[in-house]
C-alpha cells in the first residue's frame, strides 16, 4: 500500500473581485487575510485555508461561474454562535440566502458574496447516543 496523502484542507473560491470580497470576509471573520494581492487573498482557519482567486487568472480556465459550491464553518457554541455569525455576515454586507434555521445536520445559515460564492456557518446537531 502506498503512503496516504497528507496535508491541510485548502478551499479556493473563484471570484471577479478579490479586493471587495476579501474586505467583506475580513469584516465577517474578524481577521485579515495572511496573504493579499489584487488577484489572490488567503485566510487561515486552524488546519484549513480559504483562498479567493481572481477567476480570470485561474489556469486552466474555469468553465462555470462562482456560486456552485460553498465554504462551510462548523461553529462551537450552538445556535447562539450561528445567530451571532449571521448578524456579523449582515454587518459585513454579505447577502443572506438562508436565515438561521434548523436542518437535519444542525442549525445553520448561508450568506453569499457579491459574486455568488457561498459561506455557510453551522452548529452540528448532537450525535445520536
Explain this structure to me?
The chain has 129 residues and is α/β, with parallel strands linked by helices. It has one domain: 2,3-Dihydroxybiphenyl 1,2-Dioxygenase, domain 1, CATH 3.10.180. The strands form 2 sheets. The protein has a 4-stranded mixed sheet with strand order 1-4-3-2, with helices on one face. Strand 2 and strand 3 form a beta hairpin. Helix 1 packs antiparallel against helix 2. The longest helix has 14 residues. The chain is globular, with a radius of gyration of 16 Å. It starts with 9 loop residues before the first strand and ends in a 5-residue tail after the last strand. The model has no long low-confidence stretch (mean pLDDT 90). This is Drug:proton antiporter. It comes from Jiella endophytica.
What class would the helix/strand composition place it in?
alpha/beta
Shape-level CATH architecture: Roll
CATH superfamily annotation? 2,3-Dihydroxybiphenyl 1,2-Dioxygenase, domain 1
- Indicate the CATH class: Alpha Beta
How far apart lie the N and C ends? 35 Å
Low-confidence region ranges: none
Number of self-contained structural domains: 1
* Physical arrangement of strands within the biggest beta sheet: 1-4-3-2
Largest sheet geometry: 4 strands, mixed
Mean pLDDT: 90
N-to-C series of helices and strands: EHEEEEHEEE
Range of strand content: 35-45%
- Helix count? 2
Q: If you compute it from the alpha carbons, what radius of gyration comes out, rounded to the nearest whole angstrom?
A: 16 Å
Helix share of residues? 10-25%
Please count the beta strands (DSSP E, at least 2 residues each): 8
